[in-house]
Structures are given as structure tokens and as C-alpha cells.
Amino acid sequence: MVLKRDHEGAALPTIDVNGTTIDYDDTGGDGQPVVFVDRTAFEGQVDWFGRGYRVVAYDHRDSDNDTLYEDAAALIEALSLGPCHFVGNDVGGFVALRLVARRPELLSSAAIFSSSADEESVLGELVGTTVPLLVVSGTENSELSRRVADTAANASHVTIKRARPPLVENRPDVVSVLLEKLFEAV
Q1: Nearest CA-CA partner of 87 in 136, 126, 127
Q2: 57 has a pLDDT exceeding 50
Q3: Which of 19, 50, 93, 118 is deepest in the core (most CB within 10 A)?
Q4: Is the separation of the CB atoms in 49 and 179 below 8 Å?
């Protein structure tokens, strides 16, 4: 077994859920929980929100989106994080949309970046959902993202112009401000 370490060399905590072992970072604390899918992409946001929130960031395994959704739900339940703010980038966004549609009681809000509902389509499941949802895209995938926001009942869409992919890593300041507004509005 290989022991994974964070960027400071400390061993990462692990948890066994849904038939797999997930490595995660946890800032601890008493603040409202925020879960980020993709520890590397959201490293800046973990630092930004780590002082006022309990931030958990994890990397998903290589599997289909429904299994990844089940992993996320099991992680939230096992760590007693619900209801939490859930933030996903790319594939993590597909996971977030499934949580919004299928397990809304686990969420305070959700945000997706550079993602859509077209992958193994979940778009129809979003009709009538009430979880506050922020959909953020760059100019290149704005139409796909807008369809998500137009379908979900409590969603808003933001296009970040002139943002090079990957959006989260190239515009971390804008991403943090957008998330802060979402979290404070709930």
C-alpha cells in the first residue's frame, strides 16, 4: 500500500466508502462544510475557505459518473458533512449535478465549473430541483452550461470571458469570489 501525502508531506486521511478507499484533506473546524472534488484544481479555494468553513477536498476514482455520485454521497454521510456546499470541476460537476437531482438533502448549495449535464445525461433529472446551483463556464462551453442553469429551478449561470481552460486553475480569484457569494446567500 502506498501512503499518499499532502503538499506539506503529511499523510492524507482515508475513508472506505462504497467499496473504495478515498484519500481526502479536511481542514476541520466548526464552520459549515464545503466539499471540493479535485484537490489539485481547488487548492486555492481550500486555502481561501479553510479558515471559515470545514473544507473537505478529495479526488475521485476512475469510474462511471453514477458510481462517482454514489462515492460522493457515501463520503458526505460517513464524514457527517450534510448538508454541505458541494463544488465540482469537469467530472466533479457531473457528480454535483447528480447530488442536486438525487440527494438534495445532503446539500446546502452546489457549484459546477466547466461542466454540463450532457455526460450520461442528467439534465431531465434537474427539472424542479431546488438546491441553489451555480453553473460557471468559460466562453467555450457557455451554451452547454446555460442549458443546465435554464433547466434547474434554482440555478444561475456565469460566463467568465477570456478565461483559458482549465477555468478553476487559471482564474482562482474569480472562482473564490463567486463561491463566496453563493455560500453567503444560502
Answers
A1: 136
A2: yes
A3: 93
A4: yes
- Mind listing the pLDDT tens digit for each residue in 68-121? 999 999 999 999 999 999 999 989 999 999 999 999 999 999 999 988 766 558
Contact residues for 37 (Cβ-Cβ < 8 A; gap 6+): 57, 58, 59, 60, 72, 86, 87, 88, 89, 91, 92, 95, 96
- Using an 8 Å Cβ cutoff, are 72 and 95 in contact? yes
Share of the chain above pLDDT 90, in %: 68
C-alpha cell at 24: 481526502
The phi and psi torsions of 119 (rounded to 5 degrees) equal -65, 115
Residue 109: which of 143, 74, 136 has the closest Cα? 136
* Amino acid code (one letter) for 58: Y
Q: Quote the CATH superfamily of domain 14-185.
A: Alpha/Beta hydrolase fold, catalytic domain (3.40.50.1820)
pLDDT band at residue 8 under the 50/70/90 scheme: low
Domain boundaries, the chain: 14-185
